[in-house]
Amino acid sequence: MDRFNIMWTGGLDSTYTMIVYSRYEVEIQPYYLKNGRRSEKYEIQAMREIEKDILLHKETKAKILPLIIIEPGEIPRDPEVEAAYLRLKEEGALGSQYDWIARYARHHDVEGLFYSPVKPMSSSTKFRSCIEANGGITEKVNCVGRTYFTIDMEKSSTDLKLIFGDFNISETFDMTKVDEEKVLRENGYGDIIEKTWFCHTPVLGKACGCCHPCEATIEAGQIWRFTESRIKRYQELMAGASPFKVRLETFIDVILGK
Ligand SMILES: [Zn+2]
To answer: Which of 48, 86, 98, 215 to pair with 127, CA 20 to 30 A apart?
Structure first.
């Protein structure tokens, strides 16, 4: 049975990839990286619930293996990968998870691990900018007939190949969150969308409306995920209000059930 290794966060984009491959007779090995985010317990809870729903879905044919949780402390040092990451980071503040996951995959022989970056609604992302500045990607079709992408090994720099060369990039690369939501709803996965977790800095268990993933979710038109007051605070922040003041007000809103 073909095996698909997928980085899963409990968010919409990587859940989309999980669902895509759940519909084939394959083995799925999900991986999750812990790095001390305040949202981790909500992400893990979301994945547990979503996995149950996927397994109950009538179109599910895949076997989903138990989630592997990667602890940063268990990831071996690798001067070559770390130096490559630091050079890429200098150019565009690339997130530290890419260094950790590249080292983990290299030392645990994890092949073709899927990232699920989504097409942004407006400005580019650090991930895309990094790939564009250091090479490119190439489109492929895999054994179950799905489109995916990898780093272009001819055009890309040695650093880019060291950090992303062993990874697969999901078909989400060519989709916006709106596209993902449409496909999932049309195929009977609407309930799962509502269980995905996206906020990095929740306030008493509620999405904050102000962190980067919340911003991307609002920009993608998924306003239904937030209360009216959270959208109002987001608009205040966008208009230049102090993040500290907005967070404090959000805290009070949540306590008041708004
Ligand atoms: Zn948030």
So the answer is: 48
